[in-house]
Amino acid sequence: MRQAEHEESADDSRIVLGLLESVERDGAQSQRRIAADLGIALGLVNAYVKRCVRKGLLKVSEAPARRYVYYLTPQGFAEKSKLTVEYLSYSFSFFRQARTDCAQVLAAAKARGVERIALAGMSDLADIVRICALECGIDIVVIIEPNAAARDLAGIPVAKSFNDAAVAFDAVVLTDLVNGGETLRMVIERVGASRTYAPKLLGLNVREDGP
User: Is the pLDDT of residue 209 over 50?
Assistant: First the structure.
């Protein structure tokens, strides 16, 4: 499975798990509240609720004032337990591979004289690159994320595009887990392949002679 597809599948499982956990805590809360807790759109919550009801994971009953109460079925409890184990397993496996790949990428960049980098994409992978960058003495000076709402992440400026980035950098490390191929093309067009690095787990070939 391609990394983007794997990440999409993991996101799907995380949403289902989050929904089931939310309903277990309080089945009477509104879908709007669930959406706020999970950080996703209300329409997406509605779609996942309907899917979980169809699959027999949730039951719904009408309450006063045109409200609804959701309950986990025995199958829903079993699915929540399974997804919890799968999510933890995926998280640990992803972290181990990503940490190794990011350390290799940054070591290669350091050997080429890179001292200041930009990250293309705000994701779990970006967080791991931040850890590795501290260990190898490379500065992350900006994160490029078109959909970002915040202006900084842990003190690192966040820009919606390279044009908005007000700092200079030596190279770019790809950290987009969803649209890696598209972001890679954009980054290479902007800074060139020689200044672009992609961790191996993304499955993207930047250049013939290195990461």
Answer: no
Specify whether the CB–CB gap between 165 and 118 falls below 8 A. Answer: yes
CA dist 185 and 17 (Å) reads 34
Q: Own/partner pairs for 36-43, CB < 8 Å, 24+ apart?
A: 40/15
> pTM (2 decimals)?
0.62
Is the per-residue pLDDT at 48 higher than 80?
yes
The pairs formed by 64-70 with CB atoms below 8 angstroms and a separation of 24 or more are 67/28, 67/30, 69/27, 69/28, 70/23, 70/27, 70/28
- Tell me if 38 sits within 8 A of 45, measured CB to CB: yes
What residues pair up with 58 in beta bridges, in sequence order? 72
The least confident of 5-9, 36-40, 183-187 is 5-9
Residues recorded for the chain: 211
User: Looking at residue 171, what is its pLDDT?
Assistant: 96
138-151 residue pLDDT tens:
999 999 998 877 67
CATH of 96-202, one of 3.30.2090.10, 3.30.70.260, 3.30.200.100, 3.40.50.720: 3.40.50.720
Instruction: Please answer whether residues 19 and 50 qualify as being in contact, where contact means their C-beta atoms are separated by less than 8 angstroms.
Output: no
